[in-house]
Amino acid sequence: MALFDVPGWTVQATPVAEQSNRLSKKRKRPSLDTEKVQPTEINLDKLVKKLKGGANRDGAKGSADSSNVPGTSKCMKRERKKERDLEERKQIISLPKPLKRHDRTSTSPQSTKRLETKHERKESSSSYNSILGRKSAEVAGSGLTALQQGMKQSLDGARFRIINENLYKSSSQAAHQLMRSDPKVFDEYHVGFRHQVQSWPTNPVEHYIAQLSNRPPKTLVADLGCGDAALSKALVPKGLMVMGFDLVSDSAYVVEADICHRLPLPGSEGSEDEKSFGEGQIVDVVVCALSLMGTNWPNCLREAWRVLVPNGELKIAEVTSRFTDIEDFQSLVTSIGFKLSSMDKTNTHFTLFEFRKVSRKCKSAKEWAKIGSKGSLLKPCEYKRR
Q1: How far is CA 250 from each of CA 51, 232, 334, rounded to the nearest angstrom?
Q2: Which branch of life, at top level (predicted)?
Q3: What DSSP character marks residue 130?
Q4: Residues 199-224 as b or e (16 or more Cβ within 10 Å = b)
Q5: Could you give the 3-state DSSP secondary structure of residue 323?
Q6: C-alpha span between 39 and 56 (Å, rounded)
Q7: Can you tell me the mean pLDDT for 9-27?
Q8: 3-state secondary structure of 320
Q9: How do residues 96-137 score in pLDDT, each as one tens digit?
Q10: 216 pLDDT exceeds 60?
Q11: Taking the alpha carbons of 190, 196, 198, 200 in that order, is the dihedral positive or negative?
């Protein structure tokens, strides 16, 4: 029986039973008899060698085939070169880098800064050029605020007190060597001294300017430890002759000299047999205004006696708090060859002495050594903080 009745052709219908039978047929798998099948032994070494040999043959064959193609060999060479370069870079990166040698002479900013700091600390103890003084110099100049100006004054005051303490506790030779090696110390000291003087009710130098202004012209005055030569600048225009001596000569009015060692002036100490005034002296007045400093200050009075004319005047002004015993101080000055004329203790800060030169015998070195050992009669002057 036909499934469709189409004019011109017909399709034979397959019996349903046959179709079902054909679809239901399953492919039978062959059964394995495990007892009959025997496992084969595998040699791994031979297998590995075989695989390596095949790979080499394939690679050689491929390279031989590629060589026949124009331009292929150059491309392959470039690729291989890139691969080799890449491998070399990987090896270089993976290797540890060698340590660089440390060059102690390098001048990097950090190393230079460390060396300078060490150098500044050593220098502060040897030449008193401490960091404190350098900081005060850095802030110096115009355009400072009120706070900066106050800080600068505090630093300057501290610097002055440090220098002042060292000058009082060292000999005149050590102070002279310090000033010669670093003249700025001299300027810094006298700048600080002028600031201290501003707080005093009177200045001994001004007192002596007023006192000596009435002297006749051509009077020769020796100002020992003159500082900034205020006495010379005030009296020379009035016709007096003033010679100023200090550790540093910073102007036309100051002669560099160690006033406790040897003044560059004529004069002698006389003979050993009898009393005398010495010979060759030309100085009429010697002024020591706050200048008896150092551990050997008695030698300064010895030099004053040597250069003074007979009956010449010695004027001394010192801070009252420095004297351990005023009577012992007077006895010491008298033993050198002077006689006390007057003493003024009316000032709240200073004591003023007037001595006259008298004749005496020349002393032995042992006697001068005993006099020079009494420097402790004057204590170091302690200035207040500003």
Answers
A1: 102, 13, 34
A2: Eukaryota
A3: -
A4: eeeebbbebbbeebeebeeebbbbbb
A5: strand
A6: 31
A7: 53
A8: helix
A9: 555 555 444 444 444 444 444 444 444 444 444 443 444 455
A10: yes
A11: negative
Query: What CA–CA distance (Å, rounded) separates 362 from 364?
Result: 7
Instruction: State the Cα–Cα distance between residues 191 and 250, nearest whole angstrom.
Output: 13
Is residue 272's pLDDT more than 90? no
> In which element (H, E) is residue 255 found?
strand 254-256
Start-to-end CA span in the chain (Å):
139
Is the distance from CB of 278 to CB of 358 less than 8 angstroms?
Answer: no
Tokens of 174: 């050590």
Which pLDDT score, from 0 to 100, does residue 27 have? 59
CA–CA separation, 231 and 212 (whole Å): 10
Closest to 351 in 3D by CA, of 340, 339, 337: 340
What size, in residues, is the chain? 386
Give percent above pLDDT 70 in the chain: 65
Q: Identify the residue whose tokens are 């300057």.
A: 156
Provide CB contacts within 8 A for 274, sequence distance 6+: 361
User: Tell me, what DSSP letter sits at residue 220?
Assistant: E
Nearest alpha-carbon partner for 378 in 330, 324, 328: 324
Helix or strand run (H / E) with residue 312: strand 308-319
Q: Which two tokens stand for residue 97?
A: 């880098």
Task: Give the confidence band of 55 by pLDDT, cuts at 50, 70, 90.
Answer: low
Q: What is the DSSP letter of 143?
A: S
Hey, what are 295's tokens?
């551990």
Closest to 355 in 3D by CA, of 382, 318, 316, 328: 316
Contact 137, 152 (CB under 8 A): no
Q: How far apart are CA 382 and CA 373, in angstroms?
A: 22
For a pLDDT cut of 90, what percent of the chain falls above it? 41
Residue whose pair of structure tokens reads 């250069």 in the numeric block: 307
Residue 329: burial class (beta carbons within 10 Å; 0-12, 13-18, 19+): buried
Q: Which two tokens stand for residue 353?
A: 């002495």
